[in-house]
Amino acid sequence: MSWDEWEQIKLNQLPADSGPAVSAVTGGVKSSQRAWLAAGDGVGALRGRVRTALGKLEDGQSGLGDPDGCLSAAAQKELYASWKTYAENVGKRCASLQKILERVGHEQLMTDAGVQAEIDRVRLAYADTDAVGGGPQQGR
Asked: Highest taxon of the source (predicted)?
């Protein structure tokens, strides 16, 4: 190793009192509570935006009336129900992820495998359904 490489390695290291927590459990890996909590806040803000979109989606449905006898109104009602369910699940997924991120930020004791297992549970609980009508169009 050249002297320049050694100097660069030393420059890239954080001092022990620089702020991020160092845990013997994680083998000395540094983790920032602030970063985890900020990520949780970001996901929480996204959840709020989804809630706002749901409100606008519902407002767009007002005045549609009874869809009987009108195929486009019936299709609109079916599409609305599908998107409402999807958006509600996105909001629930955001809430679940926010809890995980905030928990990791506060506790700072979960291992990478533990965090991944929590995220995998959320992914499984809110898995998207397959697209209707097959895959992407060919030849476009």
From this structure: Bacteria
Residue pair 32/20 in contact by the 8 Å Cβ criterion: yes
What does the pLDDT look like over 79-134, one tens digit per residue?
888 889 989 999 999 999 999 988 888 777 677 888 889 889 999 888 877 766 65
Class of residue 94 by CB neighbours under 10 A (exposed 0-12, middle 13-18, buried 19+):
buried
Question: Which parts of the chain are beta strand (E)?
Answer: 21-22, 30-31
As for how many domains the chain has, the answer is 1
pLDDT tens per residue, range 13-40? 544 444 555 554 445 556 678 888 898 9
Whole-number Å distance between alpha carbons of 44 and 95: 7
Is 10 inside any structural domain?
A: no
Concatenated DSSP letters for 86-100? HHHHHHHHHHHHHHH
Structural domain of 52: 32-125
How far is 122 from 96, CA to CA, in rounded Å?
Answer: 7
